[in-house]
Design brief:
By secondary structure, this protein is an alpha+beta fold. It has three helices and seven strands. It has helices at about 25-40, 130-140, 150-165; strands at about 45-50, 60, 75-85, 85-95, 95-105, 110-115, 120-125. The strands form two sheets. It has a five-stranded antiparallel beta sheet with strand order 1-2-3-6-7. A two-stranded antiparallel ribbon has the order 4-5. The longest helix is centred in the first third of the chain and has 16 residues, at about 25-40. It is globular, with a radius of gyration of 16 Å. The relative contact order is 0.18.
Length: about 170
């Protein structure tokens, strides 16, 4: 397994809609394993393939921080089927938007359909933290970052800070 480079804002690939996976083969399995290793190394709770420069609709996630018990999950070509209620995801962050956290409006519960890493259909109905992870990572596959879901003022403050950082390099 390899640690992949995580793209960061304002990389234009982060705004691209990921292509669906047509065939789940050895290459896809390697991508999945490398993504999981990268997510754990970062450390993070989720990672979309587009965040590591791979134009495929693949998400890995894990919400168990304990190295002994953690198992990552894989979603291939995930789609949110239903969303219900609204909640505020407090202090949400992103590996592709480093050093910034914000409250984000998300649905309190979601139903997601996808394929697992073997190509079997999968349906997840969940709420709370997992619902937030799923929405966040599926947003990445649509070219949407969590900063697109915050106030224009906070978003502009972050963008200005990034511009200053790039000028000072």
């Amino acid at each position: 397994m390899a640690i992949l480079e995580i793209l960061t804002f304002p990389d234009p690939l982060l705004r691209k809609k990921a292509k669906p996976v047509d065939t789940i083969d050895g290459e896809i399995q390697t991508i999945i394993d490398d993504m999981a290793q990268t997510m754990y190394d970062a450390p993070g709770t989720g990672l979309a393939a587009i965040q590591v420069g791979i134009d495929k609709a693949i998400v890995v996630y894990s919400y168990s921080p304990d190295e002994e018990t953690r198992l990552f999950q894989v979603l291939i070509n995930p789609k949110i089927i239903t969303r219900e209620d609204e909640l505020i995801s407090e202090n949400e962050g992103c590996l592709s938007v480093p050093d910034f956290r914000a409250d984000v409006k998300r649905s309190a519960s979601v139903c997601v359909e996808a394929l697992d890493r073997e190509g079997n259909p999968l349906r997840i109905e969940d709420q709370g933290f997992l619902a937030v992870i799923l929405q966040h990572e599926i947003d990445h596959l649509e070219g949407v970052l969590f900063i697109d879901r915050i106030s224009a003022l906070k978003r502009q403050m972050y963008k200005s800070r990034i511009k200053k950082q790039h000028k000072s390099k």
